[in-house]
Amino acid sequence: MARTAxxxxxxKQLTTAQRLDSIIKSARKIMRKDKGLNGDLDRLPMLxxxxxxxxxxxxxxxxxxxxxLAGKDYRPIIEAPYRWRDWAADADGITGPDLxxxxxxxxxxxxxxxxxxxLFAYLRGLRGDNGRRERxxxxxxxxxxxxNRMESGYLLRDVVNLIDGIHFDSSEEVxxxxxxxxxxxxxxxxxxxxxxxxxxxxxxxxFMVEVTDPKLGETILDPACxxxxxxxxxxQHLERQADTVEKRRILQEDSFFGGEAKSLPxxxxxxxxxxxxxxxxxxxxxxxxxxxxxxxxxxxxxxxILTNPPFGGEEEAGxxxxxxxxxxxxxxxxxxxxxxMRRLKRAGRGRAAVVVPHGTLFGDGISARIKxxxxxxxxxxxxxxxxxxxxxxxxxxxxxxxxxxxxxPSTDVWxxxxxxxxxxxxxxxxxxxxxxxxxxxxxxxxxxxxxxxAWKVSAKELIERDEKGSVVKCNLxxxxxxxxxxEDERLPKEIIRSLLDRQRLVxxxxxxxxxxxxxxxxxxxxxxxxxxxxxxxxxxxxxxxxSEYKQITVRLWGKGLALRGxxxxxxIAAEKQVRVSAGQFLMSRIDARHGAFGIVLGDLDxxxxxxxxxxxxxxxxxxxxxxxxWITRTEAFVDLCxxxxxxxxxxxxxxxxxxxxxxxxxxxxxxxxDFLERLDVLADLQVEGAASxxxxxxxxQSVLHSVFNGKATAA
Length: 715
Prior knowledge:
The structure is a single chain. This protein has 715 residues and is an alpha+beta fold. The chain has 3 domains: 152 residues, Ferritin (Up-down Bundle); 283 residues, Vaccinia Virus protein VP39 (Rossmann fold); 100 residues, DNA methylase specificity domains (Adenine-n6-DNA-methyltransferase TaqI, Chain A, domain 2). The protein has 24 helices and 26 strands. Strand 12 and strand 13 form a beta hairpin. Helix 1 packs antiparallel against helix 7. It is globular, with a radius of gyration of 30 Å. 35% of the residues are buried. One of its GO terms (molecular function) is methyltransferase activity.
């Protein structure tokens, strides 16, 4: 009997989100091959300016069509041969060294065969006229601080061809890409965390916008806008109110203003705002503090300020001279607070929501005088106190939200304390704050009464003056009176004696540890191959599409493992994954040479990893897992992983066989236990802050170095 031929399944149609996500991922994958790009801090800005130019060309096409229908002449913002359609749209067009030359040269051969300025040189020289000043100046400013970092013009052509597949003239695609771009920005923020830039989590931004409630016709400013989070959220808030042609004109032309002094966030904010629908963002590329405070007049004042100004920075003397002599401070947040107060419209027509570090609330001296100004000249009506970890992974600094307006002076100041996240003491990168956690505060906002989370204080009680009337103290760090806390009734001398006793105890414990390690100079160590006690864990599981699975991320430089997230089986690319167990040793093949490994802790038990992350059971008859964890924290172990890694520049991988053949010195199990007891003492002291963090870290590393090298010396 003849078999009936199976009908070939129709290829599954991708959604807009899936197609765009695929384009972005493919572009980033290509960029990883380029030797000139090092990490997301390089790749994402490159991707942004390429998308920026494609966006502009698509917008130009729309405006050209409208002008043609209206029978009007149209002068393009970007002229031939510099438009995207002239050099980028042809997949077989200019590439390799010719493409790089066209981008970066001051004078070069252009795609149309003529000679003239390179693309970047042309864009930087744009000057607006005939009503086009806004957009032309935006473009010129964006490219002032930008340089191409890709070394391969062929790889760049591949990226350009992919981005050409994005249709910015489709509202659905722009809307979808706006959401994807927010994801890119979060990754960018994670990459920039070590640069001292702390970005505001979206739930906090949304809460501040909702309670401030900007209205169409009001002017909104963020003087330190970063990647534009507050402005995009405020734009979406006002967009719902723009239901006529005139209202849409007001929304686009008269509503939003920002400032961002750093070139990279400036570039990112431009595309972020464009993708969210603001056609010509008005972002000042200079330092918002560069103007003399006394010279800021009514025409520079706005209705609403939403911002998270920089914390802890230090401004140059020229900037400080713009402030009153008795209000000059090195704390950037306090300078911005003065600027914000100056730039609000008077007589109740101005209001602000500002993120400040916790130290601002209780600081004395100049800080006290600035806060007294805030209470006496403005209506500081609410302080929302956020829990630790809200700004992870950028900083663990506790923060507060100040809400004030120009209907002042302040009478009563309300405090609202956000509760701890359920089941945890603080937020983290893998378990961040959610907007829903503000629901109780939102319900309370317009119908206020004191409860276990809310209380009010008379503004007059917050300011302390000397006999001359000068402000000596202004404390806004008012503890929750509904929380029963321990009240220390000891005299100052008793507290000091207690501190001294504690320090003596710490020193005694340190001397005890030092004596122990000093007595281990001649201990016997045997060199043991890693393969003797590390056994590869290979059990793979098949994923159920509807089931949820924990996934692990492996952090660099000995920072261990963490939860990356929880996904359904259908969302995980590889059908088979390895399930790991608590106590196993896990490492990254690609980044083991950069310290990417760690022990699986209890909360990660049962999590999944791909084949790029080998997991090993540890034979505790030879090495105690906790002792091995300490050993992996040494530079010597990282160097061992480095020596066991091979490959070309972009394909360096850990070679497992080579790694497992390497030997390390291992003491007896009893000695391991003794070591652990002392090392954990040092770790406890470090956590408690009972001694110098730097000195304790140095001591721990000295001990570990001694063990790893088979020789114990005095600590």
